[in-house]
Amino acid sequence: MSRSEYQERLAWLNTEVVLLAELVVDRYEEALTAAATGDRWLADEVVDGDSEINERYLELERQCTDLIALQQPVASDLRFIAASFKIITDLERIGDLATNLADRTQAGHEGIHPAIDVETLGGDAAAMVEAAVEAYEAADPAACRAVAARDDQLDADCDRATQRLIRSLLSGTDDDRETARTAASRGLLTVRDIERVGDHAVNIAARSLYMIDGDDALLY
């Protein structure tokens, strides 16, 4: 493979990672809408679409492996390929979290639980993912750090939502305690998954920062 062909493959990889991210965020936002509106049909579309995300992830994984094994990239290219490999893994897991959320959607029941605003809380996490991928695409170290800085606010919002869910459970009567426990459990799992989406966004930003200038400050 010539040097120009090799550079074209690296550029292709960058584009395909961004396109995968767009698909994953779209599916995640559809899952948020389904959960908020009780749209079971839309939720089923998200679940059924997870196979497409998995297939694209596996193809990109193979491409990353081939680039490393066959081309013996220099240090900067190796960081780019390794970061891309890690980032697509985070994106695939966000797709799984979207499926979790879709699975919890109940037909005709708006929202996962009245104590949490699923669209707002989940939308904040989605915005972090979008910003992290933009930082990767633009090779922007400041943008990477900005994504990590936003995680504290999301964690705090998730903690407040968790506390509201616990209070709603404790305030129920014995007659409706089982129903309240089921609803609160669904809410707690959803908040946990939204927080994890934010964590994956930070992972993407951290890998991007290391890719750009070898700075491992955000890696953990």
Can you walk through the features of this model?
This protein has 220 residues and is mainly alpha-helical. It is 83% helix and 0% strand. The chain has helices spanning 3-37, 40-48, 50-71, 75-103, 118-138, 141-170, 177-213.
Q: Key terms for this structure?
A:
220 residues, mainly alpha, Methane Monooxygenase Hydroxylase, Chain G, domain 1, 0% strand
Task: State the CATH architecture.
Answer: Up-down Bundle
What is the 3D form? elongated
- Give the fraction of residues assigned to helices: over 70%
- Secondary-structure-based class equals mainly alpha
Give me the Rg, rounded.
Answer: 19 Å
Total beta-strand segments: 0
- List unreliable stretches of 5+ residues: none
Give the H and E element order. Answer: HHHHHHH
Largest sheet: none
- The share of residues in extended strands comes to under 5%
Count of the domains: 1
Distance between the termini: 36 Å
CATH topology: Methane Monooxygenase Hydroxylase, Chain G, domain 1
Q: What would CATH call the homologous superfamily?
A: Phosphate transport system protein phou homolog 2, domain 2
Output the CATH class name. Mainly Alpha
What is the assembly state of the chains in this entry? single chain
User: What's the pLDDT, averaged over the residues?
Assistant: 92
Count of helices? 7
